[in-house]
Specification:
single chain; alpha+beta; two-stranded antiparallel sheet; 5 helices
């Protein structure tokens, strides 16, 4: 499977938190270097967070094409932890509240794959998963 970002810039459009070359971005404030055609410093973008960020839509063939971030308004990212019981898939709303269709798919995906899931609905955070995951305070987003 080969997926590409193409015209999707959701990770840079102010839905994640980070800093690029001294310019901070966070939910509500997009990256200083993003424009309508993509990243203006792509070849020289910083390792963290730009090069190290992994959009799960790009890497996980089980995630359907219609869940591309610029089409679904969600960004999916695996969060791995030293304690495997705390590793989880994180779903961040990106520009609009998560739709019922997307919410239904991510919940069924987590339940069918037996994975931990942290997901945002209308700005609030929810979790599904094993007891350790559910009982542990985890820094989300």
């Amino acid at each position: 499977m080969t997926r590409e970002c193409g015209t999707c810039t959701k990770c840079c459009d102010g839905w994640l938190t980070g800093s690029a070359k001294g310019y901070n971005f966070w939910p509500g404030r997009k990256c200083h270097f993003v424009c309508s055609t993509g990243c203006t410093i792509y070849e020289d973008r910083p390792k963290d967070p730009c090069q190290s960020f992994t959009c799960s839509w790009l890497d996980d063939e089980n995630i359907p094409a219609w869940l591309k971030p610029n089409e679904s308004n969600v960004i999916m990212q695996w969060r791995t932890r030293d304690d495997e019981n705390l590793s989880h898939l994180e779903i961040v709303e990106a520009g609009a509240p998560m739709s019922a269709e997307v919410l239904s798919w991510v919940i069924m995906y987590a339940l069918n794959k037996n994975i931990n899931l942290a997901f945002q609905v209308n700005g609030g955070w929810n979790k599904i998963g094993n007891q350790t995951f559910l009982q542990t305070e985890i820094k989300i987003a």
